[in-house]
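Please produce the structure of this protein holding S-adenosyl-L-homocysteine.
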Amino acid sequence: MCKNFIKNWTLDEAKEFFASLGEKPYRARQLFNWLYEINVDSFDEMTNFSKELRARLREEFSLSALSVEERAISRDGTEKYLFRTHDDHFIESVLIKRDGSDEGRLTICISSQVGCAMGCRFCSTARIGFKRNLETAEILDQICQVRKISGIKNDNIVFMGMGEPFLNYDNVMRAAAIMNYSFGFHISVRRITISTCGLLEGIERYIDEKQPYNLAISLNDTIPARRARIMPVEKKNSIEQIAHLLQKKFPSSRNRVTLEYVMRADNIAQEDAIRVKKLFRHGNVKINLIKLNAGAHGFEPPCEEDITLFQKELEIMNVPITRRKSFGEDIDAACGQLSGRRYNPHIHISHKQSPAHSDK
Ligand code: SAH
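Below is the modeled complex.
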């Protein structure tokens, strides 16, 4: 039987547990230090805990929430990890060593769910369908395991792997808070980015709760009907409503919201740039352009000349625009390519299943 995962705990919960054993509250900080900063493999390594305490923890809790199934290394150094959960599901995480930024960040892209329910037509994860939410420990253990195996201490986290973070809101926020603990990973809140396909309820809750992390929204299109065909989420969470919500509620004092725009051959005309500008002209936003990655059958990536024109047109908006470089494409580790491998390994979506007609 699977024991409880110790990495589900927040600091307060750990303190409560230690108090129930008559242990001092500082034990909780020591525990987080062992779990995340030192990243131990066994309770026995927690040498400042008594033998009895270690035995008690070992009896009641599992230290690791995931086991590593596969590790693939790309030509560009990007590493993809396939993990197996205790109930035999599969998730993936990606370590990106050069993210193209001047700061040379070391980023881990993590998953928040097994599969995804959102059904975006250009994303491989959507083909798995939704299996279940990840527990907090399963979110955090992706980082522990990637760090352990790669020997690299990342300083940046993006929730851009498998799943929709705002449909696993509580566990994602809890994991993000634990990542920020100074006696643990100690990753700055400004280096944790949560990316949503645009769920209004989640975005509003996030703003109302004043969550300190970066927020990214996958815009990907400007015409509602066309966006709805590739991202069914648009039907109940329209880009107009998202733009309005940001304008109304997202403070100008905060780090700008990133609008992610996956560029296809058919969504980067001059009018598209004009519509983005019109929609978000009052928003505290920046734009991140991503070229559609291979594997999105039925969709064409754009050519470089069109991208340049689109970017030029957007520049008039006078907000920061960055281009996301694609890493790990040769090992299917780039954006939208995470498919959990073990699910439907031979799946192919027919080219004939054009996005324009596949909706109903
Ligand atoms: N569900 C969340 C996070 C996971 S997707 C979201 O939608 O934001 C992470 C990013 O990868 C999103 O911006 C998404 O639009 C992008 N993406 C999905 N499929 C892609 C593809 N084939 N090529 C490039 N980017 C893709």
